[in-house]
Amino acid sequence: MSLFSTSYILAVFLIFVRVGSLIMTAPYFNSAAFPKKVKIFLALITSFLLTFVIPSESVIGQVEPTLSFLVTAVVLEALVGIAMGLVGQLVFAGIEMAGQLISLKITLSFAQIVNTMTQQKSDLVGNIFGMLAVLVFLAMDGEKIYIQGLARSFEVIPLNQAELQYAGPFMLEVANYLFRIAVQIAAPFLIVLFILDLSLAIFARVMPQANIMFIAIPIKLLLGFTLLSWILPYLPDAFSSTFDQLFQYLVKVLGVMS
C-alpha cells in the first residue's frame, strides 16, 4: 500500500490517537516535566514507527475512509489509550496514597510541596514515594513494557473493534487494588501510631493536667521519621512487586477490551 494513500494516512492518524491518549495518561509519560510539544512529537514518531511493526491485517485492512468510521474509531482509540494509561495511574495513585496516610498519621500532612511530576501540591512523604516509584518504574524498564504493550494492543484490539463496555468493571478491580496498595505500604505506620495514640490517650486520662497535644506531635514526628528510615531500603522491592501486578493488569485490560 502506498505511503500517501488515504487508507494509510488514516491508519497512521488512528494509531496516533491511541498512542497520544496513552502518553497523556500513562505514568512517567504524562509527567508535567515534559512539554506538551515533546509529548506530541513522541506520539507522532511512535505512531509512524508502529505502522511498520503492527500486522497490516490488524490496522490497514480495517480502515474505511468514511466520516462515520472516523468519528467512531477516534473515540474508541482514544478510550483504549486512556484505559491503558489509567491502569498505571491507579497503581501510582495507590503508592502516593500510602504516603498521604503516613503524612497524616505523623502530622506532616500540613507540609505541602510541589510535585515535580504533576506540578501540583502534595504532602512530603507522598512526594518522596512518588519519585521513588518513578525511579523503580524506570529501573524495571516500565516505559519499554508500556510501549511493547501498546504495540501488542493493535494485534489484540484492531482499530474500531474495542469492547469498552467490559473495561468499566475491570477498572473497579484496579481501583480496589489501589486501596490495598495504600494500606499494605502504610500498615506499619498505622499499627505503630495507633498503639502510640492509645498510649497517649491513657496518659491523658492519668494526667489530665498535661498538654497532650504539645507532647504528642514531637513524639509522632520522631517515631514517624524513625520508621520511615527503617522501611525506605525495603520500598524498592515492595514497589517492584506492585509494578509486576501493574504489568499483569495491563495485559488483562487488553484481554478484556478485545
From TrEMBL:
Its main location: membrane. It comes from the Bacteria. It is a multi-pass membrane protein. GO terms for cellular component: bacterial-type flagellum basal body; plasma membrane. It is found in: Cell membrane; Bacterial flagellum basal body. Keywords: Bacterial flagellum, Cell membrane, Cell projection, Cilium, Flagellum, Membrane, Transmembrane, Transmembrane helix. Belongs to the FliR/MopE/SpaR family. PANTHER family: FLAGELLAR BIOSYNTHETIC PROTEIN FLIR. Role in flagellar biosynthesis. This is Flagellar biosynthetic protein FliR. It comes from Fodinibius halophilus. The lineage of its organism: Bacteria, Pseudomonadati, Balneolota, Balneolia, Balneolales.
